[in-house]
Amino acid sequence: MKKYRSWAFIPPIEQKAVRPQWLGFKLPDTNEGEKEKSGSLLPYGNGRSYGDSCLNVKGTVVDSRSLNRFIHFDENTGVLKCEAGVTFADILAVIVPKNWFLPVTPGTKFVTVGGAIANDVHGKNHHQDGTFGRHVLGFELLRSNGDTLLCSPDENKDFYAATIGGLGLTGFITWAEIQLIKIESPYIKVETTAFHGLDEFYALSESANKNHRYSVAWIDCASSGKNFARGLFMAGDHADHTPQGKPNKAVQAEPKLSIPFNFPKLALNRYSIKAFNALYFNKNSAMSAGTSYQHYDSYFYPLDGLGDWNRIYGKQGFYQYQFVVPFSEKATMEKILNKIVESGLGSFLAVLKEFGDVDSPGLLSFPRPGICLALDFANRGETTLKLAAELDELVIKAGGAVYPAKDVRMSSQAFKAYFPKMEEFKAFIDPKFTSDFWKRVNKES
Amino acid sequence: MNNNETAVIFGATSAVGQALSKIHAEQGGALILVGRDESKLDVTAADLRTRGASQVDCLVADLDDFDKHQSLLQEIENKADDIAKYYFFYGTLPDQKACEASWQESHKALTTNFLSAASLLTLIANKVETESKNKGDRGIIVVTSVAGDRGRQSNYIYGAAKGGLTLFLQGLRNRLHKSGCSVTTVKPGFIDTPMTSDIEKGGPLWATPEKVAVDIYKAAQKGKNEIYTPNFWMPIMLIIKNIPETIFKKLSL
Ligand SMILES: Cc1cc2nc3c(=O)[nH]c(=O)nc-3n(C[C@H](O)[C@H](O)[C@H](O)COP(=O)(O)OP(=O)(O)OC[C@H]3O[C@@H](n4cnc5c(N)ncnc54)[C@H](O)[C@@H]3O)c2cc1C
Ligand SMILES: NC(=O)c1ccc[n+]([C@@H]2O[C@H](COP(=O)([O-])OP(=O)(O)OC[C@H]3O[C@@H](n4cnc5c(N)ncnc54)[C@H](OP(=O)(O)O)[C@@H]3O)[C@@H](O)[C@H]2O)c1
């Protein structure tokens, strides 16, 4: 049995898998009779989801990583067609030298195109460009009965909408066609501003987002008192030229530093997190307030340079909590931050970001207008789970949502509240497909 | 780094062959892909063109068909007059028990994994020997296996083919030394590819085709004689080769 896991190591499991090599393959037979044996199916991208949405312990995952070929790239129009297992890292290596860029990218380039569609991922430009799904011109969906459906905004529209953000449940995406954006340089012009408190963040975000394609803020979730909710706001745009003296490299090297082993449990405690936050905040607000030029790789993918950074949380893994609440719910956001600070469980990496009102194309897409916060919690068993459940209640009351790609614990009630189109979605699920996530959020309790 | 030399890939649709071709393509090189499945070759070629290959040609051939080897090499020569690298990646992993039960099975495995390569290499050697080139400009790179280092009951038909090929390459290296064409023998351990899809995988001994391809690319650029990949197989095989036969024959390997 092969080792498959999600990015946060919870739950740590052995997973049965098949790995098709060429398009035109057939999904494995899961006849009723042998259902117990080979069971159900679930596509697997590159395992960069934190929770159990990319796992199917009782069944089989269909590993897409050998389906990693480019099919066509039109350098004039920026239309790229490729197999679903191609990663964003591979795409960048091909397109950046030709002055094209991904329309939307998450905070790691090691995701596959299929995985990016299935979670309808968002990036730092959500306020202007919406989710990744909006830039998907079309794809082919392979169903377990052998049917292939061409899906686009014009053809099989219902399956198109169900599959984008569809958590891999509607079938296997074999290839996709995406529209890239034009750039002039691999560099990003970044403007960094320090802020203190949520009021300052909301004001900054509102004014900056009109003029900048990208924006994201780092926020301190460990400090209270006068340092409560302090942070750094970073607005960015593709530079219109490569600044003098900077190498015009398209791609940066593979991770230089990697975490070779799981950190001992004690490495991350509330003091080390606090110290890290203080250090990071002081270093960055002193050094880089103002304008600077950053290579896209370090701007978009700061963690990718660190190899298997998830190992710093040790063998017990960690939880990530990512939610969005409407703009009008600033008080809820404040309450949640307070709770996190009080708990002392917050991570050194909390990210605050505005989602704009560009519609997400998927029935189950997570992004919706409001402010979104993402942070890691070290795994302290019940204590961590209890905190997350309390936060869930606040998010539900505020009419917000929690991101399934980062989740391993939300209840079925919470999921239903966050994703009101769940019932409509069910009609498009492939009868042979399921995931551990899906079983969990459908469990009656 | 830019490297626009032309490489011929025998077995271009193999997992390791595809991974190696990608590296050449990313450097802007030209590729001639040889395989027996036309549609797989076309898909592979489209990928390599997008990744930056300056030129990709495909030739369809079942390499067990010895009668066509001469014309195949002629076609290759027609595609490019200056070939820098010849890579050999094709192969089969036969079922040892089936080989024991039927000479036909064994014969097939020996044909694909040894005789076919020996035939092609004979023709290629005769060609490169007559070319006047600088040392380091040309190389022949052939993937054999750690299985060829010592015969074991579980795998000796495949092992014999790969071991035979390894010896053949030693001789060829010696012969072509004068003409400046390097001959590189590549001995991988376990690689996670379709060839091993029936075997339970996981654990530190298994390598990805991408990792193996990087090792092969570097060895080819340097014109190395022989490499193990990943290189931890070298000490492992040193020990295995040195176990006295009186003991070895009693082991269940
Ligand atoms: C460091 C880091 C930063 C991140 N930052 C962001 C961010 O900024 N924004 C954001 O939105 N997300 C972010 N994520 C989450 C990540 O982008 C998503 O979880 C993404 O879906 C992972 O893609 P993957 O290819 O690894 O897919 P997996 O995690 O393997 O699978 C994800 C889902 O896609 C499905 N799937 C995979 N391939 C196919 C296919 N061929 N056909 C159909 N379904 C398929 C799976 O079944 C599963 O449901 C981040 C993750 C990490 C580790
Ligand atoms: N995988 C391992 O653990 C391992 C270990 C040591 C050494 N090796 C060696 O590494 C090399 C690459 O193997 P791989 O693991 O990448 O295997 P692979 O993906 O299974 O590829 C084997 C390739 O050989 C081709 N082939 C077989 N018979 C052929 C014939 N008669 N004519 C033309 N092509 C033929 C196949 O063509 P089709 O695509 O048309 O089927 C296939 O592309 C092989 O020499 C293998 O022996 C592998």
Structure in words:
The complex is a heterodimer of chains A (445) and B (253). Chain A is α+β, with helices and mostly antiparallel strands and 445 residues long. Chain A folds into 2 domains: 70-183, Uridine Diphospho-n-acetylenolpyruvylglucosamine Reductase, domain 3; 187-409, Alpha-Beta Plaits (2-Layer Sandwich), CATH 3.30.70.2520. Chain A has 12 helices and 19 strands. Chain A has helices at 88-95, 113-118, 126-129, 157-163, 198-211, 270-288, 296-300, 330-343, 382-397, 412-418, 422-426, 436-441, and strands at 2-3, 14-18, 41-44, 60-63, 70-74, 79-83, 100-101, 136-142, 148-151, 172-179, 181-182, 187-196, 214-219, 230-238, 290-295, 318-325, 351-355, 370-378, 401-402. In chain A, strands 15-12-14-13-17-18-16-19 form an 8-stranded antiparallel beta sheet. In chain A, strands 5-6-10-8-9 form a 5-stranded antiparallel beta sheet. Chain A has a 4-stranded mixed beta sheet with strand order 1-2-4-3, with no helix packed on it. In chain A, a hairpin with a 4-residue loop joins strand 5 and strand 6 (79-83). In chain A, helix 8 (330-343) runs antiparallel to helix 9. The two termini of chain A are 32 Å apart. Residues 253-269 of chain A have low confidence and may be disordered. Chain B has 253 residues and is of the alpha/beta class. Helices cover 47% and strands 18% of the residues of chain B. Chain B contains 9 helices and 9 strands. In chain B, the strands form 2 sheets. A 7-stranded parallel beta sheet of chain B has the order 3-2-1-4-5-6-9, with helices on both faces. In chain B, strand 2 (30-35), helix 2 (38-50) and strand 3 (55-60) form a beta-alpha-beta unit. In chain B, helix 5 packs parallel to helix 6 (156-176). The longest helix of chain B is centred in the middle third of the chain and has 28 residues, at 103-130. The interface between A and B is medium-sized, with 15 and 15 residues. Residues 11, 13-16, 35-37, 40, 62-64, 89-92, 112, 143, 145, 188, 190-191, 193-196, 209 of chain B line the site of NADP nicotinamide-adenine-dinucleotide phosphate (NAP).
